[in-house]
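Progress against Task 2.4 (sequence-to-structure conversion) is shown through the following example record, which the project officer requested during the mid-term review.
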Amino acid sequence: MQSIDDLARTIIELAPTDQMELLERVARLNFQKGLEELARKYQSRLTSENCLDTPTEKVWDELRSMREEVVSRDYPN
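Structure tokens generated for the chain above:
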């Protein structure tokens, strides 16, 4: 594997458009990695709370209920 310094030298030798493409790819990969980590944490939490097999419609109902509660509390008529 390349050292960080070697990698940095390789990157600065790239054309500016290639550098931008590389940065965009790295950003996408970081975002994807973050989403995967979040999904693992959420799945672990749901498993520990015995909620992993909760039917989708029940989850949506609970979310609607929470939304309505927030709206009524924070945005009264």
